[in-house]
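ping. complex inputs:
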Amino acid sequence: MALSLSQSLIRASLPISQGAEAKVYKAQLSETSLPILLKYRFQKHYRHPSLDNNLTRTRIAGEARALLKCLRSGVNVPGIRMVDAAEGVLGIEWIEGQSLRKLLGGTEEEGDDLDVEATDTELENPLKDYGVSVEELMKLVGIEIAKMHKIDVIHGDLTTSNMMLRRPKSVESTLAAELVLIDFGLSYQSTLTEDKAVDLYVLERAFSSTHPDSEPMFATVLVAYANVMDKDWPAIRNRLEDG
Amino acid sequence: MPGKTRHSPLKNADRDYLALGLEGSANKFGAGIMKHSKDGSTTVLSNIRHTYITPPGEGFQPRDTALHHREWALKVIDECLVKSGVSMHEIDCICFTKGPGMGAPLQSVALIARTLSLLFNRPLVGVNHCVGHIEMGREITGAQNPVVLYVSGGNTQVIAYSRQCYRIFGETLDIAVGNCLDRFARIIDLSNDPSPGYNIEQEAKKGKRLVSLPYATKGMDISLSGILSAVEAHTLDKKFRSKGASDNSLEEDIITPQDLCFSLQETVFAMLVEITERAMAHIGSKEVLMVGGVGSNERLQQMMAIMAQERQGQVFAMDERFCIDNGIMIAQAGLLSYRMGYETPLAKTTCTQRFRTDEVHVAWRA
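pong. complex structure:
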């Protein structure tokens, strides 16, 4: 059987990581083009085949739709490069940069809930390369989340691993640092205050479990978030404080 | 965690210990006697259960279930003692289910436990039902660091151990998976003997058309009530044949009760396997332990095995003796905490319908 285009693209790509849901590859659409990131939702053999097909298709389409909505409204997310919902493949812009978890010297992802051991606390400040302070970075986080919530997109899995700081073109670059939200695999659309508050709550939990003494950091995120959300903020704050 | 050994806070038994476990949080009354020997071995001396079975189309009401437990308790405990060859005077502690579960049945069992405690002057140990399931599962299967899927008529949780606590990673946001299956069994008039879930499983084997049902996972949580409504709606469809397909029928475009059982299982179990896999990926465990009544479903075990195999992992499942509510699991968890010096004073032997798994201090593990 001949391989589909998506499948042969995957064959020629470099595997990056594998999660529970998907495999991630670094690929190139043509020899001269910029690299892209392929997210392949592989088949789950435990599921009934037609159920599996349907789920994969709707999830890929849903993720692409959320990204598109964000792109149109100027939320910093990776651009879409290709969508093959039937095959379960989504191709997005390759972001040169570093995840916030690493930048903030967070603990390792694997087994972070069992036996946490600080690994690289002595790492020298990796933020210097990006020309931002922790405080500024937290402001960027708050602003991006608020921009996303303004258009009723709920991320569903806000953690510091799902945020990246784009590497500036040069060290002396005058361009402001850009924070990019990634992995919209669990995202959905909702206008509910509750859902937005839950999104923030998930992030707060992620902060406290991966970054020690994160309380002032998260407070900065909220201040910036509140500024953008403006009149929508009090309702969300109430919901968040209710727990 | 692999590669790390920690000393268990539980000291080796200085003598043989015996515990009587009493369970009655739902429609089963169970009694079991567990022995922890000086040589470190653990023996199930007896494990007796009696189930309250209601007519087709009916669930079990708290009041009637409590009556059932009161009627059967002494017979079951008697049989349990005779079978084990142990007398009440040799027992070290009496363990009972403190919760979670149905109020009235829990109370009647707690009352029996208190009476025995006063009659024979033995200490009481209140046990969390879910922790009982997990500890018994780990004892029977020998799983080392499993992600636990606890699925029963009243509970649906994905659990993993961390720092002396069984943490809940995901759970149902509304009804339990067993409850969803049982209620659908009632809708299509399946028998409650031996259990509605077992009969759904048998019917599902004859189903072949997959009807579309909602699929509701939210991170590591799931929602089931909407699926129950959706599958019930299919029984009102014009295409639904409550008697099944007639033998000489050429009709293709129909839905039979068997198809609905099949579709319900396929959808709901896929959701359970998905959240379990997510938890495994999250904590980096390669083992799954299934406990609770629904855990004895062979299709669920099969799906879980495929998932685990694809991750180079392993599934630990048990048969109905230990999966479905039983007294021995209460004895096991109770005896572990008794050996750590824990007793429940009489004034605190109340029970509670709400008692989350993560509220228990798991003192006996490192």
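The longest helix of chain B spans residues 257-283.
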